[in-house]
Amino acid sequence: MKKILVISALGILMISCTNTKLINYNTDRLDNIEVYLKEHKFVKPSDNLEKLRNEGQIEYSSQYKSLEREAEAWKENQEMSQ
User: ∠30-36-40 over CA atoms, to 5°?
Assistant: First the structure.
């Protein structure tokens, strides 16, 4: 009986530690994305967007890049430039 209680207590302790690590990881990740979004304010859409893209005045990518990866790349660039 004592073994079951000890194993149960250890199991609960391990789960709570895992949850804390996961919460900290997600909090750091979301903070990183929020800082990235603050640095990259929304640009109003332009009526001439197609024209500017064809002239090469703006960058355009048809390949999807997740916001998380883009924010991580931005963070690495910020750390390198400091």
Answer: 140
The per-residue pLDDT of the chain, averaged, comes to: 76
Q: How far is CA 26 from CA 31, 32, 33, 80, in A?
A: 8, 10, 11, 23
Q: Are 32 and 72 in contact (CB under 8 A)?
A: yes
Q: What is the pLDDT of residues 45-65, one digit of tens each?
A: 667 777 877 887 777 666 667
| pLDDT at residue 67 in the model | 77
CA 65 → CA 27, 29, 60, 62, 73, distances in Å? 21, 16, 12, 9, 11
CA–CA gap between residue 38 and residue 5 (Å, rounded): 49
